[in-house]
Amino acid sequence: MNISKLHPLLLLIIFLISCNSTDNDIIEEDDDQEIITDNCYTDQALDSSRGLCDVTLPYTNNFEETTSSTVRIISTNSIPNHDVGLFGAVQGSLNPNAITEQSEVYHITLTPTISSELTSLLSSTGPAYSFGVLLNGVELDPVAAEPFPHEGFDSPNANWEWNLEALNVNLGLDCTNAHVQPTGKYHYHGTPTSFLEHLNISNQEMTLIGYAADGFPIYYRYAYANANSSSSEVIEMTSSYQLKSGNRPGDGITAPCDVYNGIYTNDYEYVEGLGSLDESNGRTGVTPEYPEGIYYYIITEDFPSIPRYFRGTPSDDFRI
């Protein structure tokens, strides 16, 4: 056909049909493959709001720490030593699970060693470990059980590579970044604000606040500028994680799409040397309790707040 001899109106119609054929959200490449365009988006929203902490519990905090020659033993009822948010089956509660006393005993090695590989708190089938326990007996448990596509943690379609980040979505956390499991256990997903206020944390000294499941100590935010000198000034430690740039690679069906914004834990990436801490949000150095030096973790204000990896071997008492 000689296109130059076609009527101008017919040429215009052919041009419009050709343009429209490539302007769909989903382009059929073949019978079993689809390419999703940039119009894919997520229905999850950033939300860092927190509930009040204006409820005094009818329980007393019970925390006991003993040691043998090799093991630190922490016994606790998991009741915090501060006020909490409103939880339980009442109007206005942050989630429907009421806080109840627990009976927890943690055995933590006194001689932790660094392993050749990191152990993640999150496995391919869901949360594997809580991170540790504070000196008030309450667990640090940062990983939510909220995998994509948000049909429930026991969904056969659960993609645990993309798990909601508890600190950046509305999971009913109170002012101290904590909420309650269906079992009634109160636990922290991020910086335990009220607990730290109770300790009257200073920015002029290192403050031990708990122990990780692998036995290494946990400090809050501040450490010696020179890791090998307790006479050096105390400064704020910084995370080496940052938000990824661009868009998630998912199709919106088997994995999320849209821009990396912190809704998912996997929206963040570790960049060696970006901050003062390693991939496990820790480093090796001297501390007031360990003047000979030890590996220790830091809870930071920025992501990940509570570490998501162990440098040592975690105790099975923290297994989820």
Verbal overview:
The chain has 320 residues and is mostly beta strands. It has one domain (49-318). The chain is 6% helix and 26% strand. The protein has 2 helices and 23 strands. It has helices at residues 8-20, 193-199, and strands spanning 26-30, 33-36, 63-67, 71-76, 104-109, 119-120, 122-123, 126-127, 132-134, 139-140, 147-148, 159-163, 178-180, 186-188, 208-212, 217-220, 222-224, 234-236, 241-243, 268-270, 282-285, 294-299, 309-310. An 8-stranded mixed β-sheet has the order 13-14-10-9-15-16-22-21, with no helix packed on it. A 3-stranded antiparallel β-sheet has the order 3-4-5, with no helix packed on it. It has a two-stranded antiparallel sheet with strand order 1-2. Strand 13 (178-180) and strand 14 form a beta hairpin. The longest helix is centred in the N-terminal third of the chain and has 13 residues, at 8-20. Residues 1-6 and 8-37 have low confidence and may be disordered. This is YHYH protein. It comes from Mesonia phycicola. Residues 106-312 form the YHYH domain. It holds the Pfam family YHYH. InterPro entries: YHYH_dom (IPR025924).
User: How far is the first residue's CA from the last residue's CA?
Assistant: 71 Å
Give the fraction of residues assigned to helices: under 10%
Basic shape: globular
Topology as a string of helices (H) and strands (E): HEEEEEEEEEEEEEEHEEEEEEEEE
Strand content: 25-35%
Average the pLDDT over all residues and give the rounded result.
Answer: 90
Catalogue the unreliable spans.
1-6, 8-37
Instruction: Give the radius of gyration.
Output: 25 Å
The number of distinct structural domains comes to: 1
The biggest sheet, with number of strands, parallel, antiparallel or mixed sense and barrel status, is:
8 strands, mixed
- Given helix and strand content, the structural type is mainly beta
Strand segment count = 23
